[in-house]
Amino acid sequence: MALLSLVNNLVGSTDEVRAPEAWRKRIRHDHTVIFIAYLDHRIRRTMPTADQYLQRRRITTGLPLALAVAERVERWRAPEWFLDTPHARALLEEATKLAILPNDVFAVEREEIRGEVDNMVLVLEAAGRTRDEAIADIQAMVRHASERFLQLTDRLPAHYDDLGLSPADRASANTYVQAMRHILRGTFDWMADGTTRYDRQATFLAVSSGYEDAPATTHK
Known about the structure:
By secondary structure, this protein is mainly α. About 75% of the residues lie in helices and about 0% in strands.
């Protein structure tokens, strides 16, 4: 909800600060599909297959929404034409995996004790993998997604040539891809060493207190 409040402020209500209509339409769509996907998950509460899980998490991770907020905060525009290309969609798909899969390893104890099923470790365990095997599988997925993301990034100049893009359009598309990289780097650092959210003691405090996040504990 904090992100939703921030978005509402960024959209603005006056001509001086109003976001472009294409951006407003895109972010309204992103909000809608995220809420629908979350609602569907909360109603069903069934264990998905790995493919079903990734398909839904491509929506609920909210990465396009975070990137849209970055556009407004940093005052740059993602080219709408680029967002609709298969190349950009492939980049976003791999970036989504890089955002959610490490989180699932960091968060599995916390989410398991809360009775969640929305975690790839738990999904793979339900399919017959042990905890160690599931984590090894996810590590392989992350390596593959990283390699694929870098390959797609390396191909961008040739992709721009094929599309006949202007220098300004190339710069805008590159900024969008760089924003993905910044978000992924920051997210991983936050999970690995910047928060007590995944601390074991914080997990037990959160569950016992009924809060989504518990008071800060010493991160180990």
